[in-house]
Amino acid sequence: MEIKKLSDTLKISSYPGRGIVMGRSGDGRYAVTAYFIMGRSENSRNRIFVEDGEGIRTKAFDEGRLKDPSLIIYAPVRVRGNDTIVTNGDQTDTVYENMEKGQSFEESLRSREFEPDGPNYTPRISGLLSVKDGKFAFTLSILKSDNGDPEECLRFTFDYDNPKAGEGRFIHTYMGDGDPLPSFEGEPERVDITGNIDEFSENIWSSLNEENKVSLFTRFIDIETGKYETRIINKNR
Prior knowledge:
This protein is mostly beta strands. The protein has a single domain, classed as Glutamine Phosphoribosylpyrophosphate, subunit 1, domain 1. It contains five helices and 13 strands. The strands form three sheets. Strands 11-10-1-2-12-13 form a six-stranded antiparallel sheet, with helices on one face.
């Protein structure tokens, strides 16, 4: 699979929806992840990311304008020991709680499927990044309808051991704008990861569609020590 510039991949689509990036920094020192959200409706755009322990959660920017919170208010990022869980919905809690009970990441997601927002049936995308003893690996998952048919849930899991420096994988909910929105297809895209955390964050944020972007979270985790740096960018301020 050809490696693509993450910025170019983002710029060509006005609406990739929500996206997860996981990989390794160019200098090889850090495990890297990013999560962004976009929105077309007033309700979706009325959000910000806020810190919540070692993770984050979404929050209404203007509580008075919040309508249905069911699919837009959740914890996208939670940390469980050496594992960082990143998802586009409340399945973050499902993964966390079931892993606490001894289930694997993939097993935990067996109890979930795509979002009940027909006719889009937005895919649930999830990632697990694990850093331990100077090594790291990550897994990405997508749960999606069968070409818009809600009678069948398609489940795909992709494992990446010992990722190469300067490379990552990018999975997102939609292939672009549309009505209904077309679900992501194929393997997570192979993309470059360049710069320090501030350069990486700005590269993503500046490449997202100005009208539709809402919030961005990025984290660099030192593979040797487990210490991390986080950046949060919100369009609503």
